[in-house]
Amino acid sequence: MSYSTQPIGFLGLGIMGNGMAARLVSEGIITSSRPLYVWNRSGEKCDALKEKFPEANIVKCESVKEVVEKCGVTYSMLSTPEAAAAVFNASTGTLSGVSEGKAIVDCATLAESDHQSMAKAVKVKGGVYLEAPVSGSKGPAENGSLIFLCGGSKSLFDSIENDGLNVMGKASHYLGSSVGVGTQAKLVVNSVMGTMLSAFSEGLALSQSLGLDGEKMVEVFMQGACAAPMFKLKGNKIVKEVADHGTNFPLKHAHKDMLLAKELAAKTGVEYKTNNMAESIFKRARESDLQLADLDFSAVFEQIHEDSKGSNDYSAKRQKK
């Protein structure tokens, strides 16, 4: 089935969803004859999107069911597995609106079993399902440079690849028909990312404790073999006297993904010790009295200093924003 002329739905206009939905509008996927139906738990965010694009054909819906019923394809980008399950299973939720041919594309990072159970339920009602977790955070969502990691219906993927996914992202990968493979790929990526940021934060903390200039060390990192876009993006924010941990990817979500990857590795018998050590740091940060959980995952840097207090003067003076 082709969905290229049918209305599009979007559920969840949070840190990621708002930018993704805006891309569908700004890049011309939404037209006068092809509306975008939106829903968010806080209706004000739907209003804000409409205000941002006053001429666009954006329709605010009072229920998730209404969105799904009116649209060919409905994208869902909810913040946690608990939120995703609640919205999907509610009496006027996602599943209640599914009928023959309706397509659900869930872009959240959930457990494999979450995506699998939702896919099965959608199929029972005659719908089609694609898991499409994204690699990227707030900035990439806003500028269309996300990477979609997809599993499930190949026909649905083919239909929306250039009519949605590649407008919201810079690349879309179809990894197989078995729902769960996209989640596996995303957990591998995010566990490596969290481990990298933990190691980078430790290196910057040691550098500054030794009296080395933090900004200069970021420059050195970026000139060498271990240069990474994430280091450039986060580094100079981390090393400020009062660090900037404005939320692009919440620390609590980063920890959730690293924990899921830890469980996945244990299930498959793979040694994942480096990730597991970093996950323990993120866990302490998430549960810390420093209130880091809702900050950007770069705030793991503050936990590293908290763990080091008393060993040097710099750690004791460290501040956070």
From TrEMBL:
Keywords: NAD, Oxidoreductase. It holds the Pfam family NAD_binding_11. It comes from the Eukaryota. Residues 180-301 form the 3-hydroxyisobutyrate dehydrogenase-like NAD-binding domain. InterPro entries: 3-OH-isobutyrate_DH-rel_CS, 6-PGluconate_DH-like_C_sf, 6PGD_dom2, 6PGDH_NADP-bd, HIBADH-like_NADP-bd, HIBADH-related, HIBADH-related_NP60_sf, NAD(P)-bd_dom_sf. The keyword Protein transport does not apply. The active site is at K186. This is 3-hydroxyisobutyrate dehydrogenase. One of its GO terms (molecular function) is oxidoreductase activity. Residues 8-175 form the 6-phosphogluconate dehydrogenase NADP-binding domain. Belongs to the HIBADH-related family. NP60 subfamily.
